[in-house]
Amino acid sequence: MSKGPLLEVRNLRVEFPTRRGTLVAVDDISLSIEPGEVLGVVGESGAGKSMTGAAVIGLLEPPGRIAAGEVKLNGLRIDNLPYEDMRKIRGREIGAIFQDPLTSLNPLYTVGQQLIETITTHLNMSASKARTRAIELLASTGIPAPDRRIDHYPHQFSGGMRQRVVIALALAAEPKLVIADEPTTALDVSIQAQIIALLKKLCRDHGTAVMLVTHDMGVIAETADRVAVMYAGRIAEIGPVADVIHRPQHPYTVGLMGSIPTLTGEHERLAQIEGSMPRLTEIPNGCAFHPRCEHAFDRCRRERPDLLPAGTSRASCWLHDAAGGRAAA
Amino acid sequence: MSVVLKEPPSAAAAPESIVQAEGLSKTFDVSLPWLNRVLERKGRSVLHAVDGVTFDIQRGETLSLVGESGCGKSTVARLLVGLYAPSAGRVRFFGHDLSELNTEAGRGMRQKLQMIFQDPYASLNPRWRVADIIAEPLRTHGLMKDPAQVMARVDEVLQQVRLSPADKVKYPHQFSGGQRQRLSIARALATKPEFLVCDEPTSALDVSVQAQVLNLMKDLQREMGLTYLFISHNLAVVHHISDRVGVMYLGRIVELATRRTLFATPRHPYTRLLLDAIPDLEMSGRARTPVGGEVPNPLNPPSGCTFHPRCPHADERCRREAPVLKVYRHAGGESQAACHAVEEGRI
């Protein structure tokens, strides 16, 4: 398909006005997702990854707001739509899966009522047909005895089963894009593997594109096609997932990959990046990473780098500026 | 390639072991109130959080306990420092029963035992300055009377955890998550302990900060000859930090082996499941078979081997009879496992 990307985010800036000045949570981010593609967005807490997801789906908590840039879905701008129009897009065009399955389900309604409501709201379907479809959806997410489970309340499900219900809800209206924000973080490892496998399978079957927001590089490695590494509200590096993991180009990504303990190899020490990510109130000038970067030079302190081509990826690092030359990275 | 293993834990190594848990159990009474029990005709219900756990820890080593939520690993940690009293079995610490430590005479022994908690936000008093937080164990144990001496010790441990003595006038909120966990470590180190129980010390931290804390813990262990019991759900972290690893499932240890043996040649089907479930950074295209099912409700555990409903090798005996931890020698080394299928040579 040469219709262009499904989702296009251009120069997105998310701000939080506070009494002590404006905090910039997401600073000039551009990315795109092709139909059927899984884009991982990875970063440490405070990197702005969840904010990016929330901005795309129009669920920024006030006073947070999109201060600049645009979000386009199928070529149409959705960031400036009135609330009611956006409501129709959420669920129908963009599904959402959040971290905690207990808070994303209403405890006062059965899962069936919630699924049927979603289906009848977005698809022109009678209640009885919607119920049949809801049972099919539950079955497709691997919930045993779906015709009986459909009348149960969320508290009657275990954590892993609840997250399956949430996935069923997100996919109920067959959206083209799913924003999954830390979908497996609240789950145990053995359940995590089941949920990742399920999400991958369903999205492949339906051709759904996914924006997978997580702090877990392992989940990204298994699931994503491309990955964007975020740091202090900016994209540090974006590229095909295998390249970013095995040949990271940005010094932050290099440090991040080295700091992850693995099951293979004997490492006496993990690579460590000194210091921690700056608070939003004190993001340094120039490259936000320069105070922690061992390759930093004058230009890094003065000028913010653009996303520059680096290998098969793009990295926002002056080391990759053809004119500036590359030090030992 | 033949791997030279550390001396396997055996009776000969016993003098070196500083902590022994023997048949340690902890039950919690989670019954409804009396009136509800009578009206609803329900009996008492007892949760077996830890069920007959036996292990020992050698001086200077790191033993890790790993498992999913609800497997009882944190309860073991609390039993080991005496925050819970065992329902059955006992903990011996330098040859003394832990219950003896709860006396004036045991005070001297108690300061050799410290704990690091998971959440560095909840475990530091937000209204105390760093100096008071770190000096608290010194004062509690009455180790130092002279304020100048106390402050000198505070400066010393702050430097040991790579913070600055100038930080001692600050409050916890002025530190990042990783720095706060260093403060917890500094507080634990103040009394010059020999044994640290670390309950998920890096779970609340980001990976790059986790690396800093793990490196620090390893450095401190080398510098001071510390012994760790490390509790975690993260197998990669456990692989990095441990000398020996115990895998727990529903209150029992199902497999215990040296780190290399456990990760290279896991015996118990649950260990294999866990190792298989970890997302793979190498992306070797390994066909992962996510095992179905979830951890059962510990209030109503399955009969026999509690893992049998999820186990691909379960048979009639597994449903009937609970396996006990036995030593198996195999090509990869020596493991302790509690599994009928391993015992019968079926896997």
Question: Can you give keywords for this protein?
Answer:
heterodimer, A: 329 residues, alpha/beta, Rossmann fold, 2 domains, 8-stranded mixed beta sheet, 4-stranded antiparallel beta sheet, 11 helices, globular, disordered C terminus, B: 347 residues, 12 strands, 30% helix, disordered N terminus
Description:
The complex is a heterodimer of chains A (329) and B (347). By secondary structure, chain A is an alpha/beta fold. Chain A has helices at 49-57, 83-92, 111-122, 127-140, 146-149, 159-171, 189-206, 217-223, 241-246, 251-258, 298-302; strands at residues 7-18, 21-33, 38-42, 65-73, 76-77, 94-97, 177-181, 209-214, 226-231, 234-240, 308-310, 313-315. In chain A, β4 and β5 (76-77) form a beta hairpin. Chain A is globular, with a radius of gyration of 21 Å. With 347 residues, chain B is an alpha/beta fold. In chain B, α4 (130-140) packs across α5 (147-160). Chain B starts with 16 loop residues before the first strand and ends with a helix. The chains are: A alpha/beta (329), B alpha/beta (347).
